[in-house]
Amino acid sequence: MRRPGRAERLDSVLARDGDTCVWCGRTLGGRVAATTEHLIPKVRGGPAWVENEVAACRRCNGGRGHRGAVDWLEECERRGWDPDVARVARVLDLLADAIADRGGQRRARPQLDAQRRRMARRGTEAA
Ligand SMILES: [Zn+2]
Fold first, then answer.
1. 47, 59, 61, 92: which sits with the fewest CB atoms below 10 Å from its CB?
2. Residue 1: pLDDT over 90
3. Range of the domain at 30
4. How far apart are the C-alpha atoms of 109 and 87, rounded to whole Å?
């Protein structure tokens, strides 16, 4: 099966999640350049799958660096931005489902589990 390229994955992610930056909520397009980034970073074994990608503006993508998704989410909140917590939780779940289906990704699994546990704890505290 042919793997979709970066531009194609960006289109899929925008169609799935809408055209806003997951971290700051700004509408992407025009002067706010749209990028995709990996919730589980590649350096931590995250796969280049749409199930591991979210749309972010270039500023947020660059600002995050290799920080974990939940660390960066909480940094965005401290900065007074409006990160899409539900979207992050949803895409982490999508990735877990995709890994369960396809197997492999041994390096990404513990990272993903840790991120999902932190999201679950946040949910409990907010309720
Ligand atoms: Zn942003």
1. 59
2. no
3. 6-126
4. 19
